[in-house]
Every structure is written in C-alpha cells, then in structure tokens.
Amino acid sequence: MKAENKKYVVLTCIALAALFLAAAGPFYVVEEGSQAVITRFGEVVGSRTKAGLYLKAPFIDSVTVYPRRILSLDGDNSRIPTKENQFIVVDTTSRWRIQDPELFYAAFKTLDAAYTKLSDIIDSSTRTIITRNRLSEIVRSSNIINDSSDQQTEIALVDGEDSAEIESLISADYENESVTKGRKALCEEMAEEARKMVGEYGIELIDIVPRQIKYSDELTASVYNRMIKERNQFAQAYRSIGESRKTRLLGKLENEKRTIESEAYRISEETKGKADAEAAAIYNKAYSKDTRFYEFWKSLESYKKTMGKFDSTYSTDMDYFKYLYNSEGR
Questions:
Q1: Which conformational region is residue 100 in: left (phi greater than 0), alpha (psi within -120 to 50 degrees), or beta?
Q2: Which of 113, 141, 183, 321 gives 108 a disulfide partner, CB atoms 3.0 to 4.6 angstroms apart?
Q3: Cβ-defined contacts of 81-85 (< 8 Å, 24+)
Q4: In this predicted model, what pLDDT tens digit does every residue of 266-314 receive, in sequence order?
Q5: What does the alpha-carbon distance between residue 54 and residue 31 come to, in Å, rounded to a whole number?
Q6: Degrees (nearest 5) of the Cα angle 315, 317, 320?
Q7: How many CB atoms are closer than 10 A to CB 90?
Q8: What are 77-97's pLDDT values in tens digits?
C-alpha cells in the first residue's frame, strides 16, 4: 500500500510539474507577417523572422513581437524655405519596415519610440534637400509644361515674324523655371539622406513621398501676383503685335485702294477718250451732211446754257445772236 501511495505521489508531482511548465509558457507562436526578438534578463539572445511554433526558456525568456510587413509614417506639416528663401508647407508620408529586429529592439524596444525617432529623421532629411533646391524643382517633376500644347498653341496663333517675339517671351518666362531634377529625384534624395541615419537602427526606409506641397500664405500672394504679371506681359505682347498687324494691314489696304482707284481712273479716262472720239466722229459726220443746221442747233444749245446767266444785255448786234433775233440766221 505504501508503494502504491509513493507511485501516486510521484505521478501527481510529475503532473503538477507538467501543468506548471505549461502554465509558464515554454512555447510561443510567431504569426505570418510578424517577427520576434527573444531576450533573457534584458539581453537579446535571438530572433525569429519566420512564422511558426518556437520554444523558449520559461520564466527567464521574454518574447517581443514586431510586424514584418511594410509600415507607413505620416509626417507633420513643416514650413520649409527653398533655395530662393521662399517658404512652402510640406507634408510627407514614408514607407519603412523592420529589417533587423535585434538592432531595432536594441535601439527602440517599442514601435512608438521608433516612430518618434524616424519622424525626426525624415523631417530633417526633407528640410535638408528642399533648402538646397529651387521651388520649381520641388513642385514639378519635368519640363513638360515648357513644351505643352497650350504653349505651342499660343505660339501657333501668331505666324511670321510675330511668332518669334511670342516664342522668345514665353521661353524667357520659363527659362528660370526649367527642371533639372524634378520632384521624383528629390524624393529619392530625401530617402537617401534619411537612410544614412536609419541603417544602424535595423530599419529599411523604402521611400519618402510628399503627400502635399502648398505655398505659405505670404508666398501665395506673391505667386498670384507673379502669375498676373506674366499674363499681363503676354496680353501686352499680343496687343503690340495686334497694333503692328493693324498698321501693316491698313497700309496694305490703302495701297490696294490707291491701286484700284488708279486703275479705275485709267479705265474711265480711256472710256471717256473713246466716247469723245466716237461723239466727235458722229458730230463730224452730222456736220458734214448739213453744216447750217448743225451750226443752228449748236447755237440754240449755247443760248440755253448762257442766257440764263446774263443779268442784262446791252447789245444784240453781234454775230452770237444771229439766230436769236434774225429769222434767217444772218
């Protein structure tokens, strides 16, 4: 009986030990998309980056789980000066992941601490790159606006020598805003600048992208005024070209008018000459048939034209009145 009691006691102890070990949690699970760091008395003793069931030393080992997926970090709005000392407000977002969980644990231990540090690094790199570059490099990605259809349309609306003037005006306007890098290249520079500082923390920084770029209040007014000035310059150029065209067209119109009038006068004079020649021939033919009747008829026509203009006649004893007071016309 005593032997049986001993056996039950031993089995009970074994069962209690097993329950105790099970309660202490010698196993842990790393889920898909996660990774874990194992520490013993605060010292890192290993890490697990693949999903599965793992064994740890009860009571003395601690497991800290981190995400293995890509994480995002939205920065705060930052007021940053450009190379021209024009202030813009930049809001960035970045993607990153924990590449080395052991280094990450040694540097931060918690995700919140990593977010704080990473936010400072990204803000610093963003400020560094933006202050080195002009505004046009930051807000534009290419020079496509310089060769846009709108610009070509503006030039195409004016032909001849005038188009060269418009093209030079537009080219001069965009010359100072030509893009050599563009926003995409600057984003990569920001990421490279930040990667110099995050590698030692076991972090892989994938990219930094400006989520929003807007002008500061004082710069907004300046930009609008500049846009108004540019449009006024274009308008004045078109007005000048219009006035020049108007002057040229009016001059051309006047020359054409003189040419037409001169040609019309020449034709009319030729027509008059022919008509006078025909009339003279008819008169001559009629006169040759009856000279006395012709002379009589012409005298009557002369009387009609001249007699009404005489206020008084002092004598009719002249050859001019021979058909008026002499029935025989002598």
A1: beta
A2: 113
A3: 81/130, 81/131, 82/130, 82/131, 82/133, 82/134, 82/135, 82/138, 83/131, 83/132, 83/133, 83/134, 83/135, 84/134, 84/135
A4: 999 999 999 988 888 887 777 777 777 777 777 778 877 777 676 666 5
A5: 11
A6: 100
A7: 21
A8: 888 888 888 888 899 999 999
Q: Count other Cβ atoms within 10 Å, centred on residue 91.
A: 15
Q: How crowded is residue 230: how many other Cβ atoms within 10 Å of its Cβ? A: 14
Sign of CA dihedral 231, 233, 238, 243: positive
The single-letter code of the amino acid at 100 is D
Q: Is 36 exposed, middle or buried (0-12, 13-18, 19+ CB in 10 A)?
A: buried
Q: What is the pTM of this model?
A: 0.57
Q: Minimal CA–CA distance to 130: which of 86, 95, 176, 174?
A: 86
Residue appearing with tokens 């970045």: 94
H-assigned helices in the chain: 2-24, 101-107, 111-131, 135-139, 149-156, 161-175, 183-198, 217-289, 291-306, 322-325
